[in-house]
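Sat 14:20. Reprocessing the chain from the morning session after the first attempt stalled halfway. Input below, unchanged.
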Amino acid sequence: MSLLAYPWAAKLRRFLTQRQIPAYVVGGWVRDYLLGRNNGDIDLAVGGDAMAVAWEVAQVLEASYVPLNEVHAMARVVLPDGRHLDFTSLGENIEADLLRRDFTVNAMALALDSEGGEVIDPCSGQQDLKWGLVKVVRDDVFHHDPLRLLRAVRLAAELGFALEEETQALIRRDHHLIAQASPERVRDELCRILAISGAYPFLRYLDQWGILGVILPELALTRGVAQPKEHFWDVFNHSLEAVAAVEALLHEGNLLPEWIKKEVVDLVIWSSAVADHFQEKVSGGRDRRFLLKVAALLHDVAKPQTKTIEVGGRMRFLGHAKEGAVIARSVLERLKFSNREVAMVEKMIYHHLRPGQWSDGDLPTRRAIYRYFRDTEEVGIDILFLNLADHLATRGPRLDFEAWRLHVETVAFVLNSYWEEKSLVSPPKLVSGHDLMAKFGLSPGPIVGELLEAVREAQASGEVATKEEALALAKEKLAGLEESMRAS
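Finished this time. C-alpha coordinates:
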Protein backbone atom coordinates (compact mmCIF):
# COMPACT_ATOMS: atom_id res chain seq x y z
CA MET A 1 0.00 0.00 0.00
CA SER A 2 1.44 3.37 -1.02
CA LEU A 3 2.02 5.79 1.83
CA LEU A 4 -0.06 8.44 0.08
CA ALA A 5 -3.06 6.12 0.21
CA TYR A 6 -3.38 6.91 3.91
CA PRO A 7 -5.80 9.85 4.42
CA TRP A 8 -3.36 11.73 6.69
CA ALA A 9 -0.26 11.31 4.49
CA ALA A 10 -0.92 14.25 2.13
CA LYS A 11 -1.44 16.60 5.09
CA LEU A 12 1.80 15.36 6.66
CA ARG A 13 3.78 15.86 3.46
CA ARG A 14 2.29 19.30 2.86
CA PHE A 15 3.16 20.43 6.40
CA LEU A 16 6.78 19.22 6.18
CA THR A 17 7.26 20.64 2.67
CA GLN A 18 5.91 24.06 3.68
CA ARG A 19 8.28 24.10 6.66
CA GLN A 20 11.14 23.00 4.38
CA ILE A 21 11.89 20.07 6.68
CA PRO A 22 13.61 17.22 4.80
CA ALA A 23 11.85 13.97 5.60
CA TYR A 24 12.37 10.37 4.55
CA VAL A 25 10.41 7.19 5.13
CA VAL A 26 13.01 4.66 6.28
CA GLY A 27 13.45 1.15 7.59
CA GLY A 28 10.81 -1.54 7.84
CA TRP A 29 8.02 0.29 6.05
CA VAL A 30 10.15 0.67 2.89
CA ARG A 31 11.23 -2.97 3.10
CA ASP A 32 7.66 -4.21 3.43
CA TYR A 33 6.43 -1.81 0.75
CA LEU A 34 8.91 -3.35 -1.69
CA LEU A 35 7.85 -6.84 -0.62
CA GLY A 36 4.16 -6.04 -1.02
CA ARG A 37 3.54 -6.51 2.71
CA ASN A 38 1.42 -4.30 4.95
CA ASN A 39 3.17 -2.43 7.73
CA GLY A 40 1.11 0.00 9.77
CA ASP A 41 4.04 1.56 11.63
CA ILE A 42 6.17 4.13 9.78
CA ASP A 43 9.65 5.40 10.63
CA LEU A 44 10.55 8.91 9.54
CA ALA A 45 14.00 10.50 9.55
CA VAL A 46 13.59 14.29 9.56
CA GLY A 47 15.88 17.30 9.52
CA GLY A 48 16.27 19.32 12.72
CA ASP A 49 14.94 18.39 16.14
CA ALA A 50 12.89 15.23 15.62
CA MET A 51 11.03 15.61 18.92
CA ALA A 52 9.97 19.17 18.13
CA VAL A 53 8.90 18.15 14.61
CA ALA A 54 6.93 15.22 15.96
CA TRP A 55 5.14 17.45 18.47
CA GLU A 56 4.07 19.85 15.70
CA VAL A 57 2.99 16.97 13.45
CA ALA A 58 0.83 15.60 16.26
CA GLN A 59 -0.99 18.95 16.45
CA VAL A 60 -1.48 19.11 12.68
CA LEU A 61 -2.78 15.54 12.44
CA GLU A 62 -4.84 15.77 15.66
CA ALA A 63 -2.87 12.86 17.03
CA SER A 64 -1.09 11.96 20.27
CA TYR A 65 2.55 12.81 20.96
CA VAL A 66 4.75 10.34 22.90
CA PRO A 67 8.42 11.11 23.67
CA LEU A 68 10.48 7.92 23.31
CA ASN A 69 14.10 8.82 23.96
CA GLU A 70 15.23 12.34 24.74
CA VAL A 71 18.94 11.44 24.59
CA HIS A 72 18.60 10.18 21.02
CA ALA A 73 15.80 12.64 20.10
CA MET A 74 13.16 10.04 19.28
CA ALA A 75 9.41 10.56 19.49
CA ARG A 76 6.21 8.89 18.37
CA VAL A 77 2.98 10.23 16.94
CA VAL A 78 0.03 7.90 17.51
CA LEU A 79 -2.58 8.51 14.82
CA PRO A 80 -6.34 8.21 15.37
CA ASP A 81 -6.33 5.03 13.25
CA GLY A 82 -3.83 3.43 15.65
CA ARG A 83 -0.77 3.64 13.40
CA HIS A 84 2.53 4.95 14.72
CA LEU A 85 4.80 7.52 13.14
CA ASP A 86 8.23 7.28 14.78
CA PHE A 87 10.50 10.29 14.29
CA THR A 88 14.30 10.38 14.50
CA SER A 89 16.72 13.17 13.59
CA LEU A 90 18.32 12.84 10.18
CA GLY A 91 21.81 14.01 11.01
CA GLU A 92 24.33 14.68 8.25
CA ASN A 93 22.34 13.28 5.28
CA ILE A 94 20.09 10.35 4.43
CA GLU A 95 22.91 8.15 3.11
CA ALA A 96 24.87 8.52 6.33
CA ASP A 97 21.69 7.82 8.29
CA LEU A 98 21.09 4.57 6.39
CA LEU A 99 24.67 3.43 6.88
CA ARG A 100 24.08 3.57 10.64
CA ARG A 101 21.18 1.12 10.48
CA ASP A 102 21.19 -2.58 11.30
CA PHE A 103 20.48 -4.72 8.23
CA THR A 104 20.65 -3.94 4.53
CA VAL A 105 16.95 -4.70 4.01
CA ASN A 106 16.20 -2.03 6.63
CA ALA A 107 18.70 0.50 5.24
CA MET A 108 16.54 1.92 2.46
CA ALA A 109 14.56 5.15 2.24
CA LEU A 110 12.01 7.07 0.20
CA ALA A 111 11.95 10.86 0.20
CA LEU A 112 8.56 11.89 1.54
CA ASP A 113 8.23 14.69 -1.03
CA SER A 114 8.68 12.18 -3.87
CA GLU A 115 7.15 9.03 -2.38
CA GLY A 116 6.76 6.39 -5.07
CA GLY A 117 10.00 7.50 -6.71
CA GLU A 118 13.50 6.05 -6.60
CA VAL A 119 14.51 4.08 -3.52
CA ILE A 120 17.61 5.38 -1.77
CA ASP A 121 19.62 2.20 -1.27
CA PRO A 122 23.33 2.66 -0.43
CA CYS A 123 23.70 -0.87 1.04
CA SER A 124 22.10 -2.90 -1.80
CA GLY A 125 19.11 -3.81 0.33
CA GLN A 126 16.93 -4.38 -2.74
CA GLN A 127 19.32 -7.06 -3.93
CA ASP A 128 19.21 -8.79 -0.55
CA LEU A 129 15.42 -8.64 -0.63
CA LYS A 130 15.54 -10.41 -3.98
CA TRP A 131 17.90 -13.06 -2.62
CA GLY A 132 15.99 -13.43 0.65
CA LEU A 133 18.91 -12.54 2.91
CA VAL A 134 19.25 -10.80 6.25
CA LYS A 135 22.68 -9.17 6.17
CA VAL A 136 24.32 -6.65 8.49
CA VAL A 137 25.20 -3.19 7.20
CA ARG A 138 28.53 -3.20 9.05
CA ASP A 139 30.41 -5.69 11.19
CA ASP A 140 29.93 -3.65 14.39
CA VAL A 141 26.13 -3.36 14.32
CA PHE A 142 25.66 -5.63 17.34
CA HIS A 143 28.03 -3.53 19.43
CA HIS A 144 25.87 -0.45 18.85
CA ASP A 145 22.68 -2.27 19.88
CA PRO A 146 22.96 -5.86 21.17
CA LEU A 147 19.22 -6.42 20.71
CA ARG A 148 19.96 -6.64 16.99
CA LEU A 149 21.28 -10.15 17.69
CA LEU A 150 17.71 -11.26 18.37
CA ARG A 151 16.22 -8.95 15.77
CA ALA A 152 18.29 -10.62 13.03
CA VAL A 153 16.76 -14.00 13.84
CA ARG A 154 13.28 -12.55 14.25
CA LEU A 155 13.49 -10.74 10.92
CA ALA A 156 14.60 -13.90 9.14
CA ALA A 157 11.76 -15.82 10.79
CA GLU A 158 9.06 -13.27 9.92
CA LEU A 159 10.21 -12.79 6.33
CA GLY A 160 11.13 -16.39 5.63
CA PHE A 161 14.70 -15.25 4.82
CA ALA A 162 18.09 -16.79 5.52
CA LEU A 163 20.85 -15.26 7.62
CA GLU A 164 23.83 -14.37 5.41
CA GLU A 165 26.91 -16.43 6.37
CA GLU A 166 29.08 -13.54 7.52
CA THR A 167 26.16 -12.25 9.59
CA GLN A 168 25.88 -15.67 11.24
CA ALA A 169 29.59 -15.54 12.07
CA LEU A 170 29.17 -12.09 13.63
CA ILE A 171 26.25 -13.33 15.73
CA ARG A 172 28.42 -16.17 17.04
CA ARG A 173 31.20 -13.70 17.80
CA ASP A 174 28.99 -11.18 19.59
CA HIS A 175 26.26 -13.40 21.06
CA HIS A 176 27.31 -12.61 24.66
CA LEU A 177 26.38 -8.94 24.15
CA ILE A 178 22.67 -9.80 24.34
CA ALA A 179 23.09 -9.81 28.14
CA GLN A 180 23.47 -6.01 27.91
CA ALA A 181 20.02 -5.47 26.37
CA SER A 182 17.14 -4.50 28.65
CA PRO A 183 14.89 -7.40 29.76
CA GLU A 184 11.79 -5.76 28.28
CA ARG A 185 13.36 -5.46 24.82
CA VAL A 186 14.69 -9.03 24.97
CA ARG A 187 11.21 -10.21 25.97
CA ASP A 188 9.56 -8.42 23.07
CA GLU A 189 11.93 -9.82 20.44
CA LEU A 190 11.80 -13.34 21.87
CA CYS A 191 8.01 -13.12 21.98
CA ARG A 192 7.86 -12.14 18.33
CA ILE A 193 10.01 -15.14 17.43
CA LEU A 194 7.96 -17.60 19.49
CA ALA A 195 4.70 -16.11 18.19
CA ILE A 196 5.64 -17.03 14.63
CA SER A 197 3.86 -20.06 13.25
CA GLY A 198 6.77 -22.48 13.04
CA ALA A 199 9.18 -20.92 15.53
CA TYR A 200 10.94 -24.18 16.44
CA PRO A 201 13.75 -24.00 13.82
CA PHE A 202 14.63 -20.48 14.95
CA LEU A 203 14.99 -21.63 18.55
CA ARG A 204 17.55 -24.07 17.19
CA TYR A 205 19.35 -21.19 15.47
CA LEU A 206 19.34 -19.16 18.69
CA ASP A 207 20.94 -22.11 20.42
CA GLN A 208 23.40 -22.81 17.61
CA TRP A 209 24.62 -19.21 17.66
CA GLY A 210 24.87 -19.03 21.47
CA ILE A 211 22.08 -16.54 22.16
CA LEU A 212 19.54 -18.85 23.80
CA GLY A 213 21.87 -19.85 26.62
CA VAL A 214 22.56 -16.21 27.50
CA ILE A 215 18.86 -15.30 27.57
CA LEU A 216 17.82 -18.47 29.41
CA PRO A 217 20.78 -19.72 31.45
CA GLU A 218 18.40 -21.89 33.48
CA LEU A 219 17.52 -23.81 30.32
CA ALA A 220 21.18 -24.08 29.33
CA LEU A 221 21.83 -26.06 32.54
CA THR A 222 19.67 -28.88 31.16
CA ARG A 223 22.04 -29.55 28.26
CA GLY A 224 23.50 -33.03 28.44
CA VAL A 225 21.34 -34.10 31.40
CA ALA A 226 20.53 -37.74 30.62
CA GLN A 227 17.05 -39.19 31.11
CA PRO A 228 15.58 -42.70 31.54
CA LYS A 229 15.59 -45.07 28.59
CA GLU A 230 12.06 -44.18 27.47
CA HIS A 231 13.36 -40.70 26.62
CA PHE A 232 14.91 -40.26 23.20
CA TRP A 233 16.69 -36.96 24.02
CA ASP A 234 18.49 -35.35 26.93
CA VAL A 235 16.53 -32.75 28.90
CA PHE A 236 17.65 -29.77 26.81
CA ASN A 237 16.82 -31.26 23.42
CA HIS A 238 13.62 -32.78 24.79
CA SER A 239 12.53 -29.26 25.81
CA LEU A 240 13.16 -27.81 22.35
CA GLU A 241 11.45 -30.74 20.66
CA ALA A 242 8.46 -30.19 22.98
CA VAL A 243 8.06 -26.76 21.37
CA ALA A 244 8.04 -28.43 17.96
CA ALA A 245 5.42 -30.87 19.23
CA VAL A 246 3.26 -28.00 20.51
CA GLU A 247 3.40 -26.35 17.10
CA ALA A 248 2.42 -29.61 15.42
CA LEU A 249 -0.53 -30.13 17.78
CA LEU A 250 -1.66 -26.53 17.20
CA HIS A 251 -1.38 -26.99 13.42
CA GLU A 252 1.38 -24.41 13.07
CA GLY A 253 4.21 -24.13 10.60
CA ASN A 254 5.59 -26.28 7.84
CA LEU A 255 9.17 -26.67 9.13
CA LEU A 256 8.48 -29.34 11.74
CA PRO A 257 10.98 -32.14 12.41
CA GLU A 258 10.59 -35.32 10.38
CA TRP A 259 9.93 -37.40 13.50
CA ILE A 260 6.50 -35.77 13.98
CA LYS A 261 4.26 -37.71 11.62
CA LYS A 262 0.99 -36.41 10.23
CA GLU A 263 -0.94 -39.54 11.26
CA VAL A 264 0.19 -38.99 14.86
CA VAL A 265 -1.02 -35.37 14.92
CA ASP A 266 -4.26 -36.20 13.13
CA LEU A 267 -5.38 -38.37 16.05
CA VAL A 268 -5.55 -35.35 18.36
CA ILE A 269 -8.87 -33.58 18.79
CA TRP A 270 -9.03 -30.26 16.94
CA SER A 271 -12.06 -28.02 16.58
CA SER A 272 -13.01 -24.39 16.20
CA ALA A 273 -13.51 -24.24 19.97
CA VAL A 274 -9.96 -25.48 20.62
CA ALA A 275 -8.54 -23.14 17.97
CA ASP A 276 -10.41 -20.17 19.46
CA HIS A 277 -9.14 -21.07 22.91
CA PHE A 278 -5.50 -20.88 21.88
CA GLN A 279 -6.02 -17.66 19.92
CA GLU A 280 -7.29 -15.87 23.03
CA LYS A 281 -5.19 -12.80 23.84
CA VAL A 282 -3.69 -12.81 27.32
CA SER A 283 -1.48 -9.74 27.67
CA GLY A 284 0.50 -7.36 25.48
CA GLY A 285 -1.04 -8.84 22.33
CA ARG A 286 0.35 -12.27 23.24
CA ASP A 287 -1.98 -15.27 23.09
CA ARG A 288 -2.30 -18.72 24.61
CA ARG A 289 -0.43 -20.33 21.68
CA PHE A 290 2.63 -18.31 22.59
CA LEU A 291 2.37 -19.09 26.32
CA LEU A 292 2.05 -22.81 25.62
CA LYS A 293 5.34 -22.68 23.70
CA VAL A 294 6.98 -20.90 26.63
CA ALA A 295 5.66 -23.55 29.02
CA ALA A 296 6.93 -26.32 26.73
CA LEU A 297 10.38 -24.73 26.59
CA LEU A 298 10.63 -24.46 30.38
CA HIS A 299 8.55 -27.41 31.61
CA ASP A 300 11.56 -29.57 32.60
CA VAL A 301 13.91 -26.77 33.63
CA ALA A 302 14.27 -28.15 37.17
CA LYS A 303 15.35 -31.65 36.16
CA PRO A 304 19.10 -31.06 36.69
CA GLN A 305 18.71 -30.25 40.38
CA THR A 306 16.02 -32.87 41.09
CA LYS A 307 17.77 -35.79 39.38
CA THR A 308 18.56 -38.79 41.58
CA ILE A 309 19.80 -42.33 40.89
CA GLU A 310 18.25 -44.90 43.20
CA VAL A 311 19.70 -48.22 44.31
CA GLY A 312 19.34 -50.46 41.32
CA GLY A 313 20.01 -47.63 38.89
CA ARG A 314 16.52 -46.17 38.56
CA MET A 315 16.67 -42.50 37.51
CA ARG A 316 14.11 -40.13 39.00
CA PHE A 317 13.27 -36.41 38.95
CA LEU A 318 11.02 -36.15 42.00
CA GLY A 319 9.46 -32.72 42.41
CA HIS A 320 10.75 -31.35 39.13
CA ALA A 321 7.31 -30.01 38.12
CA LYS A 322 6.93 -28.09 41.38
CA GLU A 323 10.52 -26.79 41.31
CA GLY A 324 10.24 -26.02 37.60
CA ALA A 325 7.19 -23.86 38.21
CA VAL A 326 9.20 -21.79 40.69
CA ILE A 327 12.12 -21.41 38.27
CA ALA A 328 9.80 -20.51 35.40
CA ARG A 329 8.23 -17.79 37.53
CA SER A 330 11.69 -16.35 38.20
CA VAL A 331 12.58 -16.42 34.49
CA LEU A 332 9.38 -14.73 33.36
CA GLU A 333 9.53 -12.11 36.09
CA ARG A 334 13.11 -11.32 35.06
CA LEU A 335 11.90 -10.79 31.49
CA LYS A 336 9.07 -8.55 32.74
CA PHE A 337 6.09 -10.63 31.65
CA SER A 338 2.69 -9.67 33.04
CA ASN A 339 1.46 -11.16 36.31
CA ARG A 340 -1.22 -13.14 34.50
CA GLU A 341 1.25 -14.61 32.01
CA VAL A 342 3.62 -15.59 34.81
CA ALA A 343 0.83 -17.25 36.79
CA MET A 344 -0.49 -19.15 33.76
CA VAL A 345 2.89 -20.57 32.74
CA GLU A 346 3.72 -21.38 36.36
CA LYS A 347 0.50 -23.36 36.75
CA MET A 348 0.98 -25.15 33.41
CA ILE A 349 4.40 -26.38 34.46
CA TYR A 350 3.30 -27.28 37.99
CA HIS A 351 0.52 -29.55 36.66
CA HIS A 352 2.07 -30.70 33.36
CA LEU A 353 2.37 -34.33 34.49
CA ARG A 354 -1.15 -34.61 35.81
CA PRO A 355 -3.04 -35.74 32.67
CA GLY A 356 -0.56 -38.60 32.31
CA GLN A 357 -1.45 -39.84 35.80
CA TRP A 358 -4.95 -40.94 34.82
CA SER A 359 -4.91 -44.73 34.85
CA ASP A 360 -4.10 -46.48 31.59
CA GLY A 361 -7.11 -47.96 29.87
CA ASP A 362 -9.65 -46.41 32.26
CA LEU A 363 -11.15 -43.03 31.44
CA PRO A 364 -11.07 -40.52 34.30
CA THR A 365 -14.16 -40.30 36.48
CA ARG A 366 -16.38 -37.25 36.64
CA ARG A 367 -14.89 -36.52 40.05
CA ALA A 368 -11.35 -36.68 38.65
CA ILE A 369 -12.25 -34.34 35.79
CA TYR A 370 -13.88 -31.88 38.16
CA ARG A 371 -10.83 -31.88 40.43
CA TYR A 372 -8.50 -31.44 37.47
CA PHE A 373 -10.23 -28.32 36.14
CA ARG A 374 -10.75 -27.00 39.69
CA ASP A 375 -7.02 -27.18 40.36
CA THR A 376 -5.78 -26.03 36.94
CA GLU A 377 -8.31 -23.18 36.65
CA GLU A 378 -7.96 -21.21 33.40
CA VAL A 379 -5.10 -23.33 31.95
CA GLY A 380 -6.73 -26.77 32.13
CA ILE A 381 -7.02 -27.12 28.35
CA ASP A 382 -3.54 -25.72 27.82
CA ILE A 383 -2.05 -28.33 30.17
CA LEU A 384 -3.74 -31.15 28.26
CA PHE A 385 -1.92 -30.06 25.11
CA LEU A 386 1.34 -29.49 26.99
CA ASN A 387 1.09 -33.03 28.32
CA LEU A 388 0.51 -34.39 24.82
CA ALA A 389 3.51 -32.47 23.53
CA ASP A 390 5.60 -33.79 26.42
CA HIS A 391 4.55 -37.36 25.52
CA LEU A 392 5.56 -36.86 21.88
CA ALA A 393 8.89 -35.24 22.73
CA THR A 394 9.68 -37.97 25.25
CA ARG A 395 9.44 -40.87 22.80
CA GLY A 396 10.36 -38.95 19.66
CA PRO A 397 11.01 -41.30 16.71
CA ARG A 398 10.40 -44.30 19.01
CA LEU A 399 6.78 -43.35 19.71
CA ASP A 400 4.53 -46.30 20.62
CA PHE A 401 1.53 -45.57 18.41
CA GLU A 402 -0.92 -47.64 20.47
CA ALA A 403 0.09 -45.99 23.74
CA TRP A 404 -0.24 -42.61 22.01
CA ARG A 405 -3.71 -43.48 20.73
CA LEU A 406 -4.88 -44.37 24.24
CA HIS A 407 -3.41 -41.15 25.65
CA VAL A 408 -5.11 -39.08 22.95
CA GLU A 409 -8.44 -40.80 23.57
CA THR A 410 -8.24 -39.92 27.26
CA VAL A 411 -7.48 -36.29 26.50
CA ALA A 412 -10.32 -36.17 23.96
CA PHE A 413 -12.72 -37.58 26.55
CA VAL A 414 -11.71 -34.90 29.06
CA LEU A 415 -11.94 -32.13 26.47
CA ASN A 416 -15.35 -33.27 25.26
CA SER A 417 -16.54 -33.44 28.86
CA TYR A 418 -15.37 -29.86 29.31
CA TRP A 419 -17.01 -28.51 26.16
CA GLU A 420 -20.25 -30.49 26.32
CA GLU A 421 -21.03 -30.49 30.04
CA LYS A 422 -20.13 -27.22 31.69
CA SER A 423 -21.87 -28.29 34.90
CA LEU A 424 -19.14 -30.89 35.33
CA VAL A 425 -16.47 -28.20 35.48
CA SER A 426 -18.49 -25.42 37.13
CA PRO A 427 -21.67 -26.86 38.67
CA PRO A 428 -24.50 -24.39 39.41
CA LYS A 429 -24.76 -23.40 43.07
CA LEU A 430 -27.13 -25.54 45.15
CA VAL A 431 -26.30 -24.07 48.55
CA SER A 432 -24.42 -21.03 49.77
CA GLY A 433 -22.18 -20.48 52.76
CA HIS A 434 -25.03 -18.61 54.45
CA ASP A 435 -27.28 -21.65 53.94
CA LEU A 436 -24.77 -23.90 55.67
CA MET A 437 -24.14 -21.49 58.54
CA ALA A 438 -27.87 -21.03 59.14
CA LYS A 439 -28.66 -24.75 58.91
CA PHE A 440 -25.83 -26.04 61.11
CA GLY A 441 -25.09 -23.04 63.33
CA LEU A 442 -21.62 -22.54 61.93
CA SER A 443 -19.47 -19.42 62.06
CA PRO A 444 -17.59 -18.13 58.99
CA GLY A 445 -14.36 -20.08 58.53
CA PRO A 446 -12.54 -22.85 56.67
CA ILE A 447 -15.06 -25.53 57.63
CA VAL A 448 -17.75 -23.75 55.61
CA GLY A 449 -15.40 -23.68 52.63
CA GLU A 450 -14.65 -27.40 52.99
CA LEU A 451 -18.35 -28.24 53.07
CA LEU A 452 -19.10 -26.10 50.01
CA GLU A 453 -16.29 -27.77 48.08
CA ALA A 454 -17.52 -31.24 49.11
CA VAL A 455 -20.98 -30.34 47.80
CA ARG A 456 -19.59 -29.01 44.49
CA GLU A 457 -17.48 -32.11 43.97
CA ALA A 458 -20.38 -34.45 44.71
CA GLN A 459 -22.61 -32.39 42.44
CA ALA A 460 -20.10 -32.56 39.57
CA SER A 461 -19.80 -36.33 39.99
CA GLY A 462 -23.59 -36.72 39.87
CA GLU A 463 -24.06 -37.71 43.51
CA VAL A 464 -26.28 -34.77 44.47
CA ALA A 465 -28.68 -32.74 42.36
CA THR A 466 -30.96 -30.81 44.74
CA LYS A 467 -30.56 -28.43 47.66
CA GLU A 468 -31.95 -31.04 50.03
CA GLU A 469 -29.40 -33.62 48.87
CA ALA A 470 -26.64 -31.03 49.17
CA LEU A 471 -27.60 -30.21 52.76
CA ALA A 472 -27.78 -33.91 53.64
CA LEU A 473 -24.29 -34.43 52.25
CA ALA A 474 -23.00 -31.38 54.12
CA LYS A 475 -24.48 -32.76 57.34
CA GLU A 476 -22.71 -36.07 56.80
CA LYS A 477 -19.39 -34.38 56.02
CA LEU A 478 -19.73 -32.06 59.01
CA ALA A 479 -20.27 -35.03 61.32
CA GLY A 480 -17.12 -36.61 59.94
CA LEU A 481 -15.12 -33.43 60.47
CA GLU A 482 -16.37 -33.07 64.03
CA GLU A 483 -15.50 -36.68 64.79
CA SER A 484 -11.99 -36.19 63.38
CA MET A 485 -11.49 -33.10 65.52
CA ARG A 486 -12.65 -34.93 68.66
CA ALA A 487 -10.31 -37.83 67.89
CA SER A 488 -7.34 -35.50 67.50
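The longest helix spans residues 467-487.
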